[in-house]
Amino acid sequence: MGGQAKSKKKSKPKRKEREHTTIFPQERMKAKMQDKAKKKTAEKYTIDQLLQKTEECMDNFDFTMARMFCQRALDIEPTNLTILDMLGNICAELGDMDKAKEVFLKSVELSPEEGHSKYMYLGQIHTGAEAVHYFNKGIEIMLRIMDKQTREVNSMGAAALPSEPAVTAKDVSVAFCSIAEIFFTDLCMQEGAAERCKEAIERALHYDQDNPEALQLMASYLFSIENIEDGRKYLMKSVSSWLPSQQKDEAPSESTEQQEEEEEHTQSNVPPYESRITAAKLLIEAEEFEVATDVLEGLLEEDDEVVQVWYLLGWMCYLQLDKPGATEDLESLRKSARTYLTKARKLYVKLRCEDTPMLEHTEQLLGELGGEIAADENGDEAGPSIDDIGDDFIQSSEDEDDDAMEH
Predict the structure, then answer these.
(1) Spatial distance between the Cα atoms of 277 and 283, rounded to a whole number of angstroms
(2) For the packed helices 273-285 and 289-302, what is the interaxial angle rounded to 10 degrees?
(3) How many folded domains does the chain comprise?
(4) What is the C-alpha to C-alpha distance for residues 394 and 396, in angstroms, rounded to an integer?
(5) Cα–chain-centroid distance for residue 353?
(6) Whole-angstrom Cα distance, residue 124 to residue 233?
(7) pTM of the predicted model, to two decimals?
(8) Are 137 and 57 part of one and the same domain?
(9) Rg of the Cα trace of the chain?
């Protein structure tokens, strides 16, 4: 009997649990409403309409709304590879790399031998050997598609419609560049890294000999093994492929459509901001100061609050102090170097940067040059305007008589 009594006492908490369950009907109602909303969405919009809405939002850079429409499409067809790849792309644009990774891996699981773009994204998300693995898999699929495209054209002629999204030689070249960069950075200490890096660059140039990124990577590689002269040739070929078109003033064209096409081509050929900073570093190393000035000025036109750009301007002026032919303008060079380095240091503090070696070098150079430039008589903070940068530079000894860069 005692045991039975105890068991009855133990039954009381169960009653309390049942009392607590009074909130669950609300939760169930909420879940039903959500399911109902999803069903209404499915009834209201077809997959094609949802994807069209998604694309419209992406074209307008409204990736938050694009994600919502794409997710609704995925709720209807959870194994649709097109939707998965699109959602992964959107999540990557929004910076939600965990979700992007999850979506792309799901796509890989469903169809490992189709779709190269998901492997390109996974290569960017991962690092080291994992990234190389994904890039290699993506290249394998791209080469297979290119081969298929060639066979279709040969058999059906130029009017043949591709059975899959077209892949270009430049796409393959860019993928090999990504692999080369990994052996330059994450895997640089791995045995045989230099050889594999060079091999990847050579293959990138094989598929697109005019790819600015591949040419610049080859220059970096050659500089790293102290082959400066050959490296300079690759570097100048790379920069000359995009810098003149970027600098060119907008000239009247035959038609608005033609002008837009030319501008679009120019933009697509200009490397990303960080890549152009690297180009400027290499140009300074090669003592191509005039071209480095042009590149750095272009970067400031886009964003004049990048510490590294101001630092490189100051460093370049400092290096020219010891160049033959600069004796008559030493004071001008010294003042320019101090001005740019002062700007770099102030921006470093303002933006709370974390590149300690750059800060230490900036302070060391300022110490040698006489310290920071103080505020001028009007109380304005020292710092050149972007429009006057070209006038602050003295040209290299090879072309001493040229005027400073025109704006």
Answers:
(1) 10
(2) 160
(3) 3
(4) 7
(5) 19
(6) 29
(7) 0.76
(8) no
(9) 29
